[in-house]
Amino acid sequence: MGNPATVAVTDQSERNAEPVDMVGIGVSVWDQIFLVDRYPDEDSVVRSDHRLQTIGGGITVAMATAAKLGCNAVLLDRLGHDDASTQIIESLRRAGVNDGLLQRCQGATASVASIWSAEKGGTRTIVFSPGRDIDLRWEERYVETVAAAKLLHLSGRHLDASLQAIAIAKRSGTRVSYDGGAYRYRDSILPLVRQSDILIVARQFAEAMLAASKDGNTDVDQSLSPESLATHLFDTTSAGIVGVTAGVDGSWFVSAGGPDCRGESWHQPAFSVDKVVDTTGCGDVFHGAFLAAIARGQDPKSASRCAAHVAAINATAVGGLAFETSQLDIRLMGWRSSGKRF
After folding, report:
1. Which of 34, 153, 227, 252 could link 24 by a cystine bridge, Cβ 3.0 to 4.6 Å?
2. Among 225, 243, 245, 119, which Cα is nearest to 182's?
3. Coil, strand, or helix at residue 297?
4. How many degrees, rounded to 5, is the angle at CA 277 between CA 274 and CA 283?
5. How many CA atoms are closer than 13 Å to the CA of 119, on its beta-carbon side?
6. Which InterPro entries does the record associate with it (predicted)?
């Protein structure tokens, strides 16, 4: 792995890029989602009357969400010329994502996933097929864009490139956001987590991180509430905003600037909807909407409310990017539509 400090740039070059709201570094996936009334038994057939193909991948969906909400969101990833890569790029463009810095290489193929989503209960079973030659190579042309961005959003994928990007972000004033998904904790991502300004993770990620810090064992530690986990992460990392998400139970946040040394803390309930259809990607949408609100200048508490609202609307249809901006309540969003997008 290259040393992030050896990236050759000048202060002037870092100021030359057109400002962007956020840059995301992650692995895109082409999802095939099937709604089923029950999971199939072994060696059986189950009918699905509703299926959809759409983009997936935590960072990818977050950037697409932010773009749909009117942000200038840039995605850094490596794709090929196969059908799945083409579909991903077309979907990104429809959402308004800035794809000008994507690497597209002969011989590379995109990752694909087949998702069975239960109509009752909101659970999912996923079969995942990783792409070929999809490791992002850091390029000098990324430096100016990362330096010009308000936010850099990471999840631990493309680790070498992420470390390069963090080095640029830290000396340029770009805030670093980290998405810690359930069952995604591993020791190798700690350099990213420890340098994050915004740290929003699933409860299981927080539990695994806590367990690893205690004795090197990543078995789930269920002794702490999400609220306590959020406080622990706030106290033990440098992040100024920490959130722990817990699905239908909502999310718990701590941010700097509160009345005591631990900052302000609050619980953001999940919004209820008439019918939950599919929860695929709702956490990723939550991240994207939260960052969009922060980029718009909202305070963290308002941003968490906005994120919960968009994620709830997303669950009323199939897919990781199912919400339409026309469905959103402007009173909960905190900003008005501008231009052709929200």
Report:
1. 153
2. 245
3. coil
4. 100
5. 11
6. PfkB_dom (IPR011611), Ribokinase-like (IPR029056)
Residue 156 neighbours by CB under 8 Å, 6+ apart:
162, 178, 184, 186, 188, 189, 192
Domains located in the chain, CATH noted: 20-39+49-333 (3.40.1190.20)
Distances in Å between the Cα of 336 and the Cα atoms of 66, 72, 73, 290, 328 are: 14, 16, 18, 16, 10
Higher pLDDT: 122 or 124? It is 124
Distances in Å between the Cα of 307 and the Cα atoms of 59, 148, 153, 336 are: 15, 24, 15, 15
Q: Which amino acid is at 227?
A: E
Model confidence over 18-47: pLDDT tens digits? 679 999 999 999 999 999 988 888 899 999
Q: Give residue 245's Cα distance to chain centre.
A: 13
**Side-chain half-sphere exposure of 206, counting CA atoms within 13 A:** 29
In sequence order, what DSSP letters do the residues of 93-146 get, joined into one string?
HHHT-B-TT-EE-TT-B-EEEEEEEETTT--EEEEEE--BS-PPPP-THHHHHH
Burial 239-259 (b: 16+ CB within 10 A, else e): bbbbbbbbeeebbbbbbeeee
User: What residue spans of the chain are helical by DSSP H?
Assistant: 11-14, 58-68, 83-95, 141-148, 159-172, 190-194, 203-215, 226-236, 282-295, 300-314, 330-333
Q: How confident is the model at residue 218 (pLDDT cuts 50, 70, 90)?
A: low
What's the start-to-end Cα distance of the chain, in Å?
Answer: 40
